[in-house]
From TrEMBL, chain A:
PANTHER family: ABC TRANSPORTER ABCH.1, IMPORT ATP-BINDING PROTEIN. Transmembrane segments: none annotated. It comes from the Bacteria. This is Putative ABC transport system ATP-binding protein. GO terms for cellular component: membrane protein complex; plasma membrane. Residues 2-221 form the ABC transporter domain. One of its GO terms (molecular function) is ATP hydrolysis activity. It comes from Ruminococcus albus. The keyword Nucleotide-binding applies. Gene3D superfamilies: P-loop containing nucleotide triphosphate hydrolases. Keywords: ATP-binding, Nucleotide-binding, Transport.
From TrEMBL, chain B:
It comes from Ruminococcus albus. This is MacB-like core domain-containing protein. Keywords: Membrane, Transmembrane, Transmembrane helix. The chain crosses the membrane at residues 21-40, 318-338, 368-387, 393-416.
Length: 224, 429
């Protein structure tokens, strides 16, 4: 489903230049649970940014279901993020002055009306995640674990094929982190493709494949 | 979806209510000033046109006196009143002839003692140094205000109309015993005085009470020969050229002062001068030094030159102030706008993740700017309309608003691109 060939990304110019990704080759199949680990600064987030259609790499090709994402213009790239990618990040990526409900329905606003997403559907998702009572609360009124559930609810409602998670448990205590991991695993069992960045060795073992990175390169891929 | 973008734009404004209010007020202020400046320029153009129409065929000659010491002493302090009556009869003949128009126009300042007057009304203000108020003889502060004394024909000759209240009647040109002098005020006095109000002060060292009879229009000008300039009447007090039959020292000085003025004639200098001298001889003052000056005669062209030079200078200065103000306000507004956008980095970042294109994020913030501009535009236009500014001025403001909106949308675009939303997750750690 996803195929990266020879992807390179660098930031800055001349002396300030950092090569964040160097010739990355990677293929990911539908329904996989991939974990990416490695030291801080090795390029994990940059790789997620490429996969999510947020930055366009300097060179290489990125095929998503056969389409060349690198060739997408601003509009089409936005539609790609909207339809195909869900994001769960360390700091939750919620808009603070909008309610939980407004936050989770945000992706729907950038699409034509979708009849399959009803009020009941939204309530049942929130209920499953245990945050139905928070529907009309604002993010600053929620705990870290609840905020992360809201971000996950947003992915479920917008029903994207792929979920990109960047240190989803990084800002949470251990117990809450485990609960979030369990939710992600459940989603994977229901067929979502999940790509999760973590520098926690234990968590990195929970996927179906472990990708180890160092200095912008993939140094090892371990099947579990 | 476009409705959603507009809603988001409004949300930004609601979140930054304080900045929004400040920006709206500033923009409102600027638009109003812009409209008023355009309107004022138009009025001065109109006045200029009217002036051309009125004075296209006119030639002004100065009248003045330079009495010898002896004649002067006799006139002012002599025991009898023959000299006084002779001069009076000469001036009456000048005023009443139908061959030309004589306008008496002198400028003795009033020294107001009853209340402080704003600096703009004081003598010397236009030259940049208004005279300081001084302690008067009765321990009251004296404010030296600009004032002119005019005869009846002044109003027709200089096309000065009374916009509020009423002009001087025949009786107003005769000094009363009740110590009250009727006055007309320039348009700048409108906020400070109403018709019927009185104030007190010295006119040629004599105390009087002055009663406001009316206001002259804001397009009223007179020609000041002291500096060869057309002067707007807006900050002047206009007194009638007063006659007092008492023939006392005060009445005599006042009368002599009325020799200063203009003759507006279309029959040429030689003929006019001949008639002027004949009237002098008839009145028995043929040997007094009273002049009709050819040198310095103002033809309509040179008057017009001065006139347009004066108005363009005023509008240039005014224009400069307006431009500086607009620049200042624009800078403040652009800075507020950018800081408002900066504070929305989180919001825009999340929207970007959820599928907003750069274009829709820019539209969203542009909506906020457009709202601010429309709000201030509507209020400024309504105020301009209420203040009777011309439709043209208001339309030009709309044009400016369109330009400002386009410009701010471009600023939004550039700034949001510059914000690097793609560093929203990750970025430098
Ligand atoms: N926007 C940016 N500008 C400049 N350098 C950046 C930027 N984002 C990341 N980097 C650099 O690129 C390298 C990889 O960063 P990142 O992908 O965030 O690493 P990780 O997520 O593995 O910690 C780091 O050296 C980082 O400093
Ligand atoms: Mg990272």
């Amino acid at each position: 489903m996803i195929s990266l060939k020879n992807i390179s990304v660098s930031y800055g110019k001349k002396e300030a230049r950092t090569d964040a990704l160097k010739n990355i080759d990677l293929t990911i199949n539908k329904g996989e649970f991939i974990t990416i680990s490695g030291k801080s600064g090795c390029g994990k987030t940059t790789l997620l940014n490429v996969l999510g259609g947020i930055i366009t790499p300097d060179s290489g090709s990125y095929l998503f279901q056969g389409e060349d994402v690198n060739k997408f213009a601003d509009n089409k790239l936005a539609r790609f993020r909207n339809r195909c990618i869900g994001f769960v990040v360390q700091h939750f990526a919620l808009i603070n002055d909008r309610t939980v409900y407004e936050n989770i329905t945000l992706p729907l606003k950038y699409r034509k009306k979708d009849a399959s997403v009803t009020g009941e559907k939204i309530d049942s998702v929130l209920n499953e995640l245990g945050i139905l009572s928070k529907k009309n609360k604002y993010p600053f009124q929620l705990s870290g674990g609840e905020k992360q559930r809201v971000a996950i609810a947003r992915c479920i409602i917008s029903n994207t094929e792929v979920i990109l998670a960047d240190e989803p448990t990084g800002a949470l205590d251990e117990e809450t982190g485990h609960k979030i991991m369990a939710i992600l695993k459940q989603l994977n069992e229901k067929g979502k493709t999940i790509i999760m960045v973590t520098h926690d060795v234990e968590l990195s073992k929970s996927g179906s494949r472990r990708i180890i990175m160092k200095d912008g390169e993939i140094v090892d891929i371990i099947d579990s | 979806m476009s409705l959603f973008i507009i809603k988001n734009g409004i949300k930004i404004l609601r979140k930054h209510l304080f900045q929004t209010v400040i920006m709206t007020l500033l923009a409102f202020f600027c638009l109003y000033i812009l409209g008023a400046a355009i309107g004022a320029k138009e009025t001065s153009h109109k006045a200029e046109k009217k002036y051309t129409e009125t004075y296209g065929e006119m030639t002004l000659y100065y009248t003045s006196e330079g009495l010898s010491e002896l004649t002067y002493q006799n006139f002012c302090n002599g025991a009898g009143r023959e000299d006084f009556d002779k001069l009076h009869s000469f001036l009456e003949k000048l005023k009443n002839t139908d061959r030309f128009d004589f306008v008496s126009l002198s400028s003795q300042n009033l020294e107001v003692t009853s209340q402080p007057f704003d600096e703009q009304f004081l003598y010397g203000y236009e030259e940049g140094k208004a005279v300081e108020p001084q302690m008067g003889p009765d321990d009251k502060m004296m404010y030296e205000t600009k004032s002119i004394q005019v005869s009846q024909k002044f109003f027709d000759t200089f096309s000065v109309s009374v916009s509020e209240g009423s002009g001087f009647d025949k009786g107003d040109y005769i000094l009363n015993d009740d110590g009250e002098i009727p006055v007309l005020l320039g348009s700048a006095y409108k906020g400070s005085f109403s018709i019927g109000d009185t104030f007190e002060g010295y006119y040629m060292c004599e105390p009087f009470r002055y009663r406001v009879k009316g206001f002259v229009g804001n397009d009223a000008f007179f020609f000041n020969r002291a500096n060869n300039k057309m002067i707007s009447c807006e900050r002047y007090i206009i007194l009638p050229a007063l006659y007092s039959d008492k023939a006392d020292n005060f009445a005599r000085i006042m009368l002599l002062d009325q020799v200063f003025g203009f003759i507006n004639s279309s029959i040429g200098y030689e003929v006019t001068k001949q008639m002027f001298d004949d009237l002098r001889t008839e009145s028995g003052i043929g040997n007094w030094n009273i002049f009709l000056n050819y040198k310095g005669a103002m033809t309509s062209e040179s008057v017009l030159d001065k006139y347009s030079a004066m108005t363009s200078e005023v509008s240039k200065q005014f224009g400069l102030i307006v431009v500086i103000m607009l620049c200042f306000a624009s800078i403040v507004n652009i800075i507020s706008l950018c800081s408002m956008l900066r504070e929305n980095f989180q919001t825009f970042g999340v929207e970007m993740l959820c599928g907003a294109s750069l274009k829709s994020i820019i539209s969203e913030s542009s909506t906020a700017v457009i709202m601010i501009m429309l709000l201030s535009d509507i209020s400024a236009s309504l105020l301009l309309l209420a203040m009777n500014y011309s439709v043209k001025a208001i339309l030009l403001v709309q044009l400016a608003v369109t330009g400002i909106i386009l410009f701010s949308c471009i600023i939004c675009g550039i700034y949001i691109k510059h914000m690097n939303l793609n560093t929203y997750i990750g970025g430098k750690e």
